[in-house]
What we know:
The complex is a heterodimer. By secondary structure, chain A is an all-beta fold. Chain A has strands spanning 3-7, 10-12, 18-25, 33-39, 45-51, 58-60, 68-73, 78-83, 92-102, 105-111, 115-119. In chain A, strands 2, 4, 5, 6, 9, 10 and 11 form a seven-stranded mixed beta sheet that branches. In chain A, strands 1-3-8-7 form a four-stranded antiparallel beta sheet, with no helix packed on it. In chain A, a hairpin with a 6-residue loop joins strand 5 (45-51) and strand 6. Chain A is globular and about 45 Å long. In chain A, 39% of the residues are buried. Chain B is built from no helices and nine strands. In chain B, strands 1, 3, 4, 7, 8 and 9 form a six-stranded mixed beta sheet that branches. The interface between A and B is medium-sized, with 25 and 28 residues.
Amino acid sequence: EVQLVESGGGLVKPGGSLRLSCAASGFVFSGYSMNWVRQAPGKGLEWVSSISETSTYIFYGDSVKGRFTIYRDNAKNSLYLQMNSLRAEDTAVYYCARWKGDSGTYFIDNWGQGTLVTVSS
Amino acid sequence: SYELTQPLSVSVALGQTASVTCDGNNIGGKNVHWYRQKPGQAPVLVIYRDNNRPSGIPERFSGSRSGNTATLTISRAQVGDEADYYCQVWDRSTGDVAFGGGTKLTVL
């Protein structure tokens, strides 16, 4: 069974930093691209970042570019999101999600339960 | 960045058919995927690559794509289908991912 377990969320002041982690199990982690997707309270889903299997390809959404860094450790079956210069509008539940490639497209076939990040003074 | 537009809400009578639309410029050239999210839960994939159902998703869920609009259709709607539904595309030229704003489905 695929399991994605996020950790590292919490309360942080504006301008601060936080690192999220995602522990993956139940599948060959190094064989899949991964994503972070967030959801602000009462709002819709927003893609944050994607990373390919060997970290060759990395992409970011416009709202986090230059502030967030996605990386992975395949030996530890783990995905990370380093978040710097945090703003109030970064407050959200952050989901770790497995990226499935299929016939020239990508979609998310498994999601974690999410970790809440609150940016407030 | 690529934008997808969904209606904020859709209502359907119990047992009838609901349609949730997703509009995007040149969406006909992209594959569309759909997710269902119930309150307090993580999203779940219900349709991938326009019209394919993952295992465990009932045949009542189907998808289609025509022109600039993709549609998620839920037949014989049940109270358990009440949820927020999101469409998603992947832009192969930029690697960007776009989600629609989400549609709240209410079963009356």
